[in-house]
Amino acid sequence: MNWNHIKALLLHSWYHTTHSKETQIDLFWFTLIQFLIFGLISKVISAQQPEVGTVLLLGFLLWEVVRIGQYSVTVSMLWEIWSKSFNSLFIAPLTMAEWIVSQMIAAVIKTVIVISSLAVLGMLFFQFSLLGLGLILPIYTAILIGFAYASGIFISGLIIRYGTNIQSFAWGLIYIFQPISAVFYPVDALPVQIRWTSYLSPITYVMEAARHQFATGEVRWSFIGIGAVVCLLYCVGAGLFTRHMYSRARKTGEFARLGD
Length: 260
Known about the structure:
This protein is mainly α. It is built from 10 helices and no strands.
Protein backbone atom coordinates (compact mmCIF):
# COMPACT_ATOMS: atom_id res chain seq x y z
CA MET A 1 0.00 0.00 0.00
CA ASN A 2 1.48 3.30 -1.13
CA TRP A 3 0.74 6.21 1.19
CA ASN A 4 1.61 8.74 -1.50
CA HIS A 5 -1.33 7.38 -3.50
CA ILE A 6 -3.57 7.71 -0.44
CA LYS A 7 -2.45 11.29 0.19
CA ALA A 8 -3.22 12.16 -3.45
CA LEU A 9 -6.70 10.65 -3.10
CA LEU A 10 -7.28 12.57 0.13
CA LEU A 11 -6.35 15.79 -1.68
CA HIS A 12 -8.75 14.79 -4.45
CA SER A 13 -11.48 14.25 -1.84
CA TRP A 14 -10.74 17.63 -0.27
CA TYR A 15 -11.11 19.45 -3.57
CA HIS A 16 -14.36 17.64 -4.30
CA THR A 17 -15.88 18.36 -0.87
CA THR A 18 -14.92 22.04 -0.92
CA HIS A 19 -16.25 22.59 -4.45
CA SER A 20 -19.33 20.33 -4.58
CA LYS A 21 -22.47 22.11 -3.38
CA GLU A 22 -24.40 18.82 -3.46
CA THR A 23 -21.96 17.14 -1.07
CA GLN A 24 -21.92 20.14 1.24
CA ILE A 25 -25.72 20.19 1.36
CA ASP A 26 -25.94 16.43 2.03
CA LEU A 27 -23.28 16.44 4.74
CA PHE A 28 -23.77 19.78 6.45
CA TRP A 29 -27.01 21.53 5.55
CA PHE A 30 -29.45 18.60 5.86
CA THR A 31 -27.72 17.41 9.02
CA LEU A 32 -27.88 20.87 10.58
CA ILE A 33 -31.59 21.32 9.80
CA GLN A 34 -32.47 17.90 11.19
CA PHE A 35 -30.42 18.57 14.32
CA LEU A 36 -32.24 21.84 14.93
CA ILE A 37 -35.60 20.09 14.52
CA PHE A 38 -34.62 17.33 16.94
CA GLY A 39 -33.23 19.93 19.32
CA LEU A 40 -36.44 21.93 19.36
CA ILE A 41 -38.54 18.79 19.85
CA SER A 42 -36.29 17.68 22.69
CA LYS A 43 -36.56 21.13 24.26
CA VAL A 44 -40.35 20.88 24.34
CA ILE A 45 -40.29 17.32 25.70
CA SER A 46 -37.62 18.17 28.29
CA ALA A 47 -40.02 20.60 29.97
CA GLN A 48 -41.96 17.52 31.16
CA GLN A 49 -39.45 14.68 30.85
CA PRO A 50 -35.83 15.92 30.74
CA GLU A 51 -34.37 12.44 30.26
CA VAL A 52 -36.42 11.86 27.08
CA GLY A 53 -35.15 15.05 25.47
CA THR A 54 -31.58 14.00 26.24
CA VAL A 55 -32.16 10.58 24.69
CA LEU A 56 -33.39 12.15 21.44
CA LEU A 57 -30.37 14.41 20.98
CA LEU A 58 -27.94 11.70 22.06
CA GLY A 59 -29.48 9.22 19.63
CA PHE A 60 -29.47 11.72 16.77
CA LEU A 61 -25.81 12.69 17.15
CA LEU A 62 -24.56 9.13 17.54
CA TRP A 63 -26.66 7.97 14.59
CA GLU A 64 -25.23 10.74 12.43
CA VAL A 65 -21.76 9.34 13.07
CA VAL A 66 -22.89 6.18 11.28
CA ARG A 67 -24.81 7.93 8.50
CA ILE A 68 -22.12 10.47 7.61
CA GLY A 69 -19.34 7.88 7.76
CA GLN A 70 -21.18 5.44 5.50
CA TYR A 71 -22.29 8.19 3.12
CA SER A 72 -18.75 9.52 2.78
CA VAL A 73 -17.28 6.11 1.93
CA THR A 74 -19.96 5.12 -0.58
CA VAL A 75 -21.06 8.29 -2.33
CA SER A 76 -17.46 9.30 -3.05
CA MET A 77 -17.35 6.30 -5.39
CA LEU A 78 -20.63 7.27 -7.01
CA TRP A 79 -19.42 10.80 -7.71
CA GLU A 80 -16.45 9.37 -9.61
CA ILE A 81 -18.72 6.98 -11.52
CA TRP A 82 -21.22 9.72 -12.39
CA SER A 83 -18.40 11.90 -13.70
CA LYS A 84 -17.02 8.89 -15.65
CA SER A 85 -13.64 9.22 -13.96
CA PHE A 86 -13.65 6.22 -11.61
CA ASN A 87 -12.07 3.80 -14.06
CA SER A 88 -9.46 6.31 -15.14
CA LEU A 89 -8.19 6.56 -11.57
CA PHE A 90 -7.00 2.97 -11.85
CA ILE A 91 -4.94 3.64 -14.96
CA ALA A 92 -2.36 4.81 -12.45
CA PRO A 93 -0.80 2.15 -10.18
CA LEU A 94 -3.68 2.47 -7.75
CA THR A 95 -5.25 -0.44 -5.87
CA MET A 96 -8.82 -0.78 -4.65
CA ALA A 97 -7.49 -1.13 -1.10
CA GLU A 98 -5.77 2.27 -1.38
CA TRP A 99 -8.97 3.83 -2.70
CA ILE A 100 -11.04 2.41 0.18
CA VAL A 101 -8.50 3.39 2.85
CA SER A 102 -8.37 6.95 1.53
CA GLN A 103 -12.16 7.23 1.65
CA MET A 104 -12.21 5.81 5.17
CA ILE A 105 -9.77 8.48 6.32
CA ALA A 106 -11.75 11.19 4.54
CA ALA A 107 -14.95 9.86 6.11
CA VAL A 108 -13.67 10.09 9.67
CA ILE A 109 -12.41 13.64 9.08
CA LYS A 110 -15.80 14.75 7.72
CA THR A 111 -17.62 12.99 10.54
CA VAL A 112 -15.52 14.59 13.26
CA ILE A 113 -15.98 18.06 11.74
CA VAL A 114 -19.76 17.75 11.39
CA ILE A 115 -20.44 16.08 14.75
CA SER A 116 -18.10 18.44 16.63
CA SER A 117 -19.90 21.42 15.11
CA LEU A 118 -23.30 20.03 16.07
CA ALA A 119 -22.08 19.22 19.58
CA VAL A 120 -21.07 22.86 20.05
CA LEU A 121 -24.48 24.02 18.83
CA GLY A 122 -26.10 21.54 21.19
CA MET A 123 -24.30 23.11 24.14
CA LEU A 124 -25.12 26.67 23.06
CA PHE A 125 -28.80 26.25 22.16
CA PHE A 126 -30.08 23.14 23.92
CA GLN A 127 -27.83 22.74 26.97
CA PHE A 128 -26.84 19.29 25.82
CA SER A 129 -23.24 18.12 25.79
CA LEU A 130 -21.82 14.92 24.31
CA LEU A 131 -18.86 15.50 26.58
CA GLY A 132 -21.08 14.17 29.36
CA LEU A 133 -19.96 10.74 28.13
CA GLY A 134 -16.42 11.60 29.17
CA LEU A 135 -13.40 9.60 28.00
CA ILE A 136 -15.66 6.78 26.76
CA LEU A 137 -16.98 8.96 23.92
CA PRO A 138 -14.05 8.15 21.56
CA ILE A 139 -14.69 4.42 22.12
CA TYR A 140 -18.38 4.77 21.27
CA THR A 141 -17.44 6.82 18.22
CA ALA A 142 -14.84 4.28 17.07
CA ILE A 143 -17.40 1.44 17.15
CA LEU A 144 -19.94 3.51 15.22
CA ILE A 145 -17.34 4.64 12.67
CA GLY A 146 -16.24 1.01 12.31
CA PHE A 147 -19.78 -0.02 11.47
CA ALA A 148 -20.08 2.93 9.08
CA TYR A 149 -16.93 1.67 7.34
CA ALA A 150 -18.34 -1.86 7.12
CA SER A 151 -21.62 -0.58 5.67
CA GLY A 152 -19.86 1.73 3.21
CA ILE A 153 -17.46 -0.96 2.03
CA PHE A 154 -20.28 -3.48 1.62
CA ILE A 155 -22.39 -1.06 -0.44
CA SER A 156 -19.32 -0.14 -2.50
CA GLY A 157 -18.92 -3.83 -3.30
CA LEU A 158 -22.51 -3.96 -4.51
CA ILE A 159 -21.96 -0.90 -6.70
CA ILE A 160 -18.77 -2.39 -8.18
CA ARG A 161 -20.69 -5.56 -9.05
CA TYR A 162 -24.07 -4.16 -10.13
CA GLY A 163 -23.24 -0.58 -11.09
CA THR A 164 -25.51 2.42 -10.62
CA ASN A 165 -28.64 0.25 -10.87
CA ILE A 166 -28.49 -0.03 -7.07
CA GLN A 167 -27.05 3.43 -6.34
CA SER A 168 -30.00 4.28 -4.08
CA PHE A 169 -28.51 1.82 -1.57
CA ALA A 170 -25.85 4.46 -0.90
CA TRP A 171 -28.51 6.56 0.86
CA GLY A 172 -31.14 4.06 1.91
CA LEU A 173 -29.62 0.74 2.92
CA ILE A 174 -28.17 1.95 6.22
CA TYR A 175 -31.67 2.90 7.42
CA ILE A 176 -32.55 -0.79 7.67
CA PHE A 177 -30.58 -0.73 10.90
CA GLN A 178 -32.10 2.39 12.42
CA PRO A 179 -35.42 0.95 13.70
CA ILE A 180 -33.81 -2.19 15.15
CA SER A 181 -30.76 -0.49 16.68
CA ALA A 182 -32.50 1.25 19.60
CA VAL A 183 -31.35 4.66 18.40
CA PHE A 184 -34.13 6.72 20.02
CA TYR A 185 -35.68 4.18 22.37
CA PRO A 186 -34.63 1.14 24.42
CA VAL A 187 -34.59 -2.36 22.95
CA ASP A 188 -37.57 -3.23 25.16
CA ALA A 189 -39.72 -0.91 23.04
CA LEU A 190 -39.40 -3.24 20.06
CA PRO A 191 -42.00 -5.95 19.48
CA VAL A 192 -40.93 -9.20 21.13
CA GLN A 193 -40.96 -11.03 17.80
CA ILE A 194 -38.16 -8.91 16.30
CA ARG A 195 -36.30 -7.86 19.43
CA TRP A 196 -33.55 -10.39 18.79
CA THR A 197 -32.59 -8.59 15.57
CA SER A 198 -31.51 -5.60 17.62
CA TYR A 199 -28.55 -7.51 19.01
CA LEU A 200 -27.24 -8.19 15.51
CA SER A 201 -26.39 -4.49 15.22
CA PRO A 202 -23.32 -3.04 16.99
CA ILE A 203 -25.16 0.28 17.07
CA THR A 204 -27.55 -1.19 19.65
CA TYR A 205 -24.79 -1.87 22.16
CA VAL A 206 -23.42 1.65 21.83
CA MET A 207 -26.83 3.31 22.16
CA GLU A 208 -27.86 1.23 25.16
CA ALA A 209 -24.52 1.80 26.88
CA ALA A 210 -24.53 5.54 26.18
CA ARG A 211 -28.08 6.02 27.47
CA HIS A 212 -27.29 4.00 30.57
CA GLN A 213 -24.18 6.08 31.19
CA PHE A 214 -26.07 9.35 30.81
CA ALA A 215 -28.72 8.16 33.25
CA THR A 216 -26.53 6.54 35.90
CA GLY A 217 -22.93 7.52 35.22
CA GLU A 218 -22.03 3.83 34.98
CA VAL A 219 -20.09 2.47 31.99
CA ARG A 220 -21.41 -0.84 30.64
CA TRP A 221 -18.12 -2.35 29.54
CA SER A 222 -19.75 -5.63 28.58
CA PHE A 223 -21.90 -3.83 26.00
CA ILE A 224 -18.89 -1.94 24.68
CA GLY A 225 -16.91 -5.17 24.31
CA ILE A 226 -19.72 -7.03 22.54
CA GLY A 227 -20.38 -4.05 20.26
CA ALA A 228 -16.70 -3.89 19.28
CA VAL A 229 -16.58 -7.61 18.47
CA VAL A 230 -19.78 -7.49 16.40
CA CYS A 231 -18.47 -4.43 14.57
CA LEU A 232 -15.19 -6.21 13.79
CA LEU A 233 -17.10 -9.16 12.34
CA TYR A 234 -19.06 -6.81 10.09
CA CYS A 235 -15.83 -5.13 8.93
CA VAL A 236 -14.16 -8.44 8.09
CA GLY A 237 -17.25 -9.71 6.29
CA ALA A 238 -17.65 -6.48 4.30
CA GLY A 239 -13.99 -6.51 3.31
CA LEU A 240 -14.12 -10.10 2.08
CA PHE A 241 -17.38 -9.47 0.24
CA THR A 242 -16.08 -6.37 -1.57
CA ARG A 243 -12.83 -8.08 -2.51
CA HIS A 244 -14.85 -10.90 -4.08
CA MET A 245 -17.14 -8.45 -5.90
CA TYR A 246 -14.15 -6.50 -7.22
CA SER A 247 -12.44 -9.66 -8.45
CA ARG A 248 -15.61 -10.88 -10.14
CA ALA A 249 -16.32 -7.49 -11.74
CA ARG A 250 -12.83 -7.39 -13.23
CA LYS A 251 -13.11 -10.91 -14.62
CA THR A 252 -16.49 -10.24 -16.25
CA GLY A 253 -15.56 -6.77 -17.50
CA GLU A 254 -18.26 -5.08 -15.41
CA PHE A 255 -15.65 -2.98 -13.60
CA ALA A 256 -14.42 -1.49 -16.90
CA ARG A 257 -18.01 -0.55 -17.79
CA LEU A 258 -18.72 1.36 -14.58
CA GLY A 259 -20.01 4.80 -15.49
CA ASP A 260 -20.67 3.97 -19.16
